[in-house]
Amino acid sequence: MRLAALPPTHSPLTTLLLPLQVDLEYLGKMTHGFSGADLTEICQRAAKLAIRESIEKEIEAEKEKAAADPDAMDTEERPDPVPEITKAHFEEAMKFARRSVSDNDIRKYEMFSQTLQQSRGFGNQFKFPEGGVGGSAAPGGGTPAGGAATFEAAAGADDDEDLYS
């Protein structure tokens, strides 16, 4: 069996293992429009289901061992009965999955993103004036537009104010 390792996030636990039978591409298609937090919730629920199943199997094994030999001490290390998050864990977790962001909200965020990108800076139309460092006259004569003279005038007006006082 081949496994895909997922590094844990904000967890002291070891790396979680997903068998390759868990089709992450299909899971992605089925959760289109889900937020990152929604996807995190699904993954955390699947992991908790796997942990719960592992604990239940360990308890059952302890009961069986105690019933077979009540006086025996358990000193041997046994392998984890559920060493990976399976497709069944994700299928169960998906029963509780929900989107927290509506299609309308997504459209609003996309429109906001476009507006924000359009209002940022100069974009592709920014160019330094010809003539090199130190600035020569702007193409029409006079001072360069938005150049050193404008900056110096603005800086001189605020000489009385200190940022840290």
Helix/strand class: mainly alpha
Strand order of the largest sheet: 1-2
Biggest beta-sheet profile: 2 strands, antiparallel
The name CATH uses for the topology of the domain at 37-67 and 81-97 is Helicase, Ruva Protein, domain 3
Mean pLDDT across the residues is: 76
Named CATH architecture of the domain at 37-67 and 81-97: Orthogonal Bundle
Number of helices: 5
Relevant terms:
165 residues; Helicase, Ruva Protein, domain 3; two-stranded antiparallel ribbon; disordered N terminus
Helix/strand layout:
Layout: E1 3-6, E2 16-19, H1 24-30, H2 36-68, H3 87-94, H4 103-119, H5 148-157
Antiparallel strand pairs: 1-2
Can you offer a commentary on this structure?
Helix content is 45%, strand content 5%. It is mostly helical. The protein has a domain at 37-67 and 81-97: Orthogonal Bundle (Helicase, Ruva Protein, domain 3), CATH 1.10.8. A two-stranded antiparallel ribbon has the order 1-2. The protein is elongated and about 90 Å long. The chain starts with a strand and ends in an 8-residue tail after the last helix. The model is unreliable at 1-5 and 10-14 (pLDDT under 50).
Summarize, please.
It is built from five helices and two strands.
